[in-house]
Specification:
11 strands; alpha/beta; two-stranded antiparallel sheet
Length: about 240
């Protein structure tokens, strides 16, 4: 299957203005994400999708590929679907967040291979185990529960599963990295919002409410999404340590 990796990026950010262009080891963050995603062996093309000329120019100047999208998209999925129109021969579209400069290329490959032999699979995503109660209770950390075959049962901002009997299950945090069948992505973006989606403000619930399967890969990778100045300082420190090894 032909897979295209699309990295949606917009300039505005409440907590970190101009986030995609903030520097990580002297290079704009969006370019660092592009570098990492481009290393995935199962991806044929990697591209940044943006509505901002400054981001477009930064990616191109760094040797990457970018496309311009409309400025009126309400969600990243809408921007992703518009960008996917530029790749009619793609079988899979991988969505990597523009604020994940530590994304492991091997994880992108794993998302793609999850579709092998499963014609009913519409989309796949990633989760990591949570062990700190403060992290479990934080509604900004989206939790996911899956069945024994690794397909999502539900996503919530609430701590799920509820531990009436302690120690019987683990808690997993959803990481917003996705792979979609292209035709499903276009259908998904056109679906009307659903009740649970609107209640939780979680777009992926729209897929579940419409009867589509979401494969959840459990990862041991370390994810540091850059949302604050402290996050940016930490990621710069990690890049600095790696460069001196």
């Amino acid at each position: 299957m032909k897979a295209v990796c699309i990295i949606p990026a917009r300039y505005a950010s409440t907590r970190l203005p101009g986030k995609p262009l903030r520097l990580i080891a002297g290079v704009p963050m969006i370019c660092r994400v592009f570098e990492r995603a481009s290393q995935a062996s199962q991806v044929s093309t990697t591209v940044v999708a943006t509505d901002d000329q400054r981001i477009f120019d930064a990616v191109v100047e760094h040797g990457g590929r970018a496309i311009m999208t409309r400025a009126d998209h309400s969600t990243g999925t809408d921007r992703l679907a518009e960008a996917a129109q530029s790749f009619p021969d793609a079988d899979l579209i991988v969505n990597v967040q523009g604020d994940e400069p530590l994304i492991n290329p091997a994880l992108i490959d794993q998302l793609i291979t999850a579709f092998d032999g499963d014609d009913q699979l519409s989309m796949a995503t990633v989760a990591v185990e949570l062990t700190e109660q403060s992290e479990i209770d934080n509604p900004n950390n989206v939790k996911v529960v899956a069945d024994r075959n690794g397909y999502a049962l539900y996503f919530s901002r609430a701590p799920i599963p509820f531990e009436r009997n302690k120690g019987k299950s683990k808690v997993f945090k959803h990481i917003g990295i996705y792979a979609y069948r292209r035709e499903f992505l276009l259908e998904y973006a056109s679906m009307a919002p659903t009740p649970l989606e609107q209640s939780e403000s979680l777009e992926q619930l729209r897929a579940l409410e419409n009867g589509h399967k979401i494969k959840v890969l459990i990862s041991a990778d370390k994810f540091i999404g850059v949302d604050t100045e402290d996050d940016l300082i930490l990621v710069n420190k990690i890049y600095s340590e790696v460069s001196h090894e």
